[in-house]
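2 proteins. here.
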Amino acid sequence: MMSEQGRVTPGTAAPAEERSCSWMNIWQFLIIALVIKAAFMTICLVLPFCHSSDQPRALLQQQFSEWECDSAVPQGTARGWTCCPKGWRRFQRSCYFLSLDMMNWAESEQNCTEMGSQLVVINSKAEQAFLSEQTEKPPKRENFYIGLFAEKVGQWQWVDRTPYNVTSAFWQKGEPSGSTDENCTVMHALEKTLNNWNDVRSDLMQHRICEAAAVTV
């Protein structure tokens, strides 16, 4: 309603103007959010490995600046490269690090974790065969910690909670010994058969095998 002087009567047109401004603010916010999202997606398409949201894999990528990649798809296609940090060995979808230095079991587990990996979890005969072959390569080393341990005697478990299956284990003859203080597992590189696991004390200094998922770009 207009007053005699032509001014807006309080409580009439002003609320409509305020509502209009509120809707304008909402649309501005939505447009800005869409612009930010589009920019982020563009960056991810340009930068390698940006699509990964898995924390251990992201940590692995932060630790290493040099990578070695193999084509995982038929030649001539633009996508499908499988990559491992330089110096690691790849088998199927995993990357493996065989250490030159020696640590006890707890230190070995921590070292693998800090690199975005874990002490190796062996899931198949093919994987065991591959790793056994790798441990025999120079320089000569004797034992490698793997990610199998026992909190109680005979109760073996993998570091990633993969169920332990005794029928798919690769113990040396007479192992595990059942000793109360031998609660960790090494792969014995000098054993020339696939059955080369041995239970040992966790305080012994050994080499280690770390495993991480390969990165695909």
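next one coming up
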Amino acid sequence: MNHKKNKPIPVPAAISAKAASYAEQSAIRDLTQPLPEMRAMLREDYADSCTAAVEMSGVTLSDETIGGVRCLVITPAEPRPGRRLVYLFGGGFTLGSPFEDLPISAWLAAKTGAVVIAPDYPLAPEAPYPAALDACTTVISSVLAETPGACLCGESAGGNLALAAVHRLRVNGVPLPKALALLSPFVDLLNPGDSGLADRDPFLNQSEIDFFRACYVGKEVDLTTPDVSPIYGPFDATFPPVFLTSGTRDHLLSGCVRLDRLLRQAGADCTLRVWEGMWHVFEFYPEIPEADASLTEIAAFLDGHFAKA
């Protein structure tokens, strides 16, 4: 994939050598390319790592249509009865698919024994807000109707969609996921906060944030509506337990910190893990020790809530 080199940022000493080598090679997408080319190159660039994740984790892949939405179904080698996890991929609402997120979703399936359902939701700008949220909410509702103990996970834009969908489910008075695991969620499209101003993330910068936002929502859309920026939605003690991960260099760290505080102040159960020196959705690279450790913690969190289903 064609990238523009990001400005060099000193790598902290207190991270693994593997993580440091990744950070030193950091690059940012060339946003002048046509989107179809960006998407095709993204898939090509990550094809080997996605295939490796499937082989090493021992999962099998299949397709299923749920509520009219095509989904990738990721089945672990030893599925545990009654465990289903809806997983929402990231990519700024404009890039990616369930395939590109297999380095995360395949390992979560293997580590939890859950069958993972990953909706292939429509991408902007061809299908702007609320198309992706509508599709994800439909799949989540359908899975919960069949498996009331199901959990929900999302990374980046997928974390946004997961939180926004739960707000919708709560308004409609329908079953909720037992728990949410959110990896560097994009909870506020306004993107205020120190981490955005610092712009220290080697894999996500403010130019990309502006690009993704412009693709996803029109200028007429209120960015503080909970459907768009779910951090502005209502939270109380009945909100499902949440596990948040981020890193000290994550461009979206401030949003994660704010969300954690809002949930805890509302009496909800929330755990925030901030990893030293890590960047936006560092779990995408499970060969990094910190990524594998984070995925193991996420799996343990989900395990605890699956057990209570």
